[in-house]
Amino acid sequence: MKRLLITGGSGFIGRNVLAHLKPLGYEVFCVTNVSSAPSDTGVTPVACDLMDAVQVDDVMQRIRPTHLLHLAWYTAHGAFWTSERNLAWTGASLNLIRSFATVGGTRAVFAGTCAEYDWSAPSPFNECLSPTKPATLYGVCKNSLRQVLEAYTNRVGVSIAWGRVFFLYGPGEHQDRLVPSIIRSLLNDKPVVVRASGHVRDILHVTDVASGFAQLLDSGVTGPTNVAFGQGIELGTLAREIASIVGREELLTLGLAEPTPENPASIVAKDGKLREATPWNPTVRTRDGLAELVDWHRHQSR
Amino acid sequence: MKRLLITGGSGFIGRNVLAHLKPLGYEVFCVTNVSSAPSDTGVTPVACDLMDAVQVDDVMQRIRPTHLLHLAWYTAHGAFWTSERNLAWTGASLNLIRSFATVGGTRAVFAGTCAEYDWSAPSPFNECLSPTKPATLYGVCKNSLRQVLEAYTNRVGVSIAWGRVFFLYGPGEHQDRLVPSIIRSLLNDKPVVVRASGHVRDILHVTDVASGFAQLLDSGVTGPTNVAFGQGIELGTLAREIASIVGREELLTLGLAEPTPENPASIVAKDGKLREATPWNPTVRTRDGLAELVDWHRHQSR
């Protein structure tokens, strides 16, 4: 039996990944920092403060997971880019892999980010060839963590992959982020201005990101691996699609912003290792995903 | 008044650095994990487990240091290159700088290592130009820590320098390391074989390393800074010097070893920022330092 410990299982990606794990034959233990359990998911909740090394060692000794999926991090919208809490999460993640290796764990997947790449280098970004040069504290911490993990797991014989997340959307995303903020404004009859409408981003539905992590975990793929669609969409095109679904195109204004180092013209993944080495393929067409999401927001606001 | 918190103050470099700090006008608080105090050094001992974030925050709140000199790390001879304890020290060091910044600290110096450099690149190694590509877990952890520190301190306005230590010698060094092991063998009438006698290393007396850290702390120099002599010596030449001082040249055999990635032909610092930007200069001539050290070992073995 594959025994999986997952962190961040109640987060945006995490709560979507659980459904993809059972069919792959995992017994799933989900770290929570509250005592309330996910009810009917077949997942065993495990109360543990990941900042507490003693608690982590205790959980590892008790569960002895063969697999580890580490999605937890500080992700407060906007604040996460520069928060000092990135430092504590780097330390907690290092402690987690050490503790996992100590009880004989064999396979781990950690969440990385497209913000590790040098955004001034040409996009699309390839896991093996594109340079890393993170410009934010969040990106630097993830990138530094990855370097230590590679050296450490290589030495102790843990197989590890590092899933680089790009942009995503779906039900339950923080309402201030781009896609939900456009939808909510339009549903509330408010005008929407998309300033950088010419910028191109690699956007993937959260359920496909989640299945990507599940497939990555179940594979033997190692090292940095883009968990992304592999194609870009102009933000203006994306916004027009949403406005057309809502039926309020007249509320939408598209601007053009100069690219900046923090907001470059294109952030797109090179279609790479994940599709080549696993059965993974995105299943949600953007139009369908957006239509479903607009419905979801309509129901939320009732 | 400059209030300095120092970690690793009882280590090989640390206990030598204390004497250089008082003349520079520092009130010195020295973190120890035991309750025994350094006696007549004018240093205030502070009991604190650096692995415990609550204790660290408590000490920072109590002392409110303006300056931080972080020398503590796991340094057990041989084992430190690959030990998993490098991970915990990375996390503890991240916590330390966060806690220091939180109480308004303004100037920090952390100990780095020549093992951050790409040892397959041409030596001497320049702080600004030479590539980093650490081959060991110790080097990777230090290098990753440095990257996070740069991003974090830049954001919170702490001035930080990163002192890269090369090779050192002096009284109190672990007896299994190269210089003391040669001295002790010769003093005990045992033959000595120096296998890689053609390899060139940058070796500096510990008191000069210590004064380098003190001057670096007291300067405005930022970023990676070699704390090294800036000239190499062949290990064979070094061993012959020792044998000549002891008067037992006949016990010495010099071999020639092929350079390897872990043991390259030359590891030498480019004479750089430290001498240019501070009053620092090494004061101990190698012959004198070795003669004094041989005397020290003679007294130790009585």
Describe the overall structure.
- 2 copies of one chain form a homodimer.
- With 302 residues, chain A is α/β, with parallel strands linked by helices.
- In chain A, 37% of the residues lie in helices and 19% in strands.
- Chain A has helices at residues 14-21, 53-63, 85-102, 137-156, 178-187, 206-218, 235-246, 273-277, 286-300; strands at residues 2-7, 26-32, 44-47, 67-70, 107-113, 159-165, 167-169, 192-194, 200-201, 203-205, 223-227, 233-234, 252-254, 266-267.
- In chain A, the strands form 4 sheets. A 7-stranded parallel β-sheet of chain A has the order 3-2-1-4-5-6-11, with helices on both faces.
- In chain A, helix 4 links the parallel strand 5 and strand 6.
- Chain A is globular, with a radius of gyration of 19 Å.
- The N and C termini of chain A lie far apart (44 Å).
- At the A-B interface, helix 3 and helix 4 of A face helix 3 and helix 4 of B.
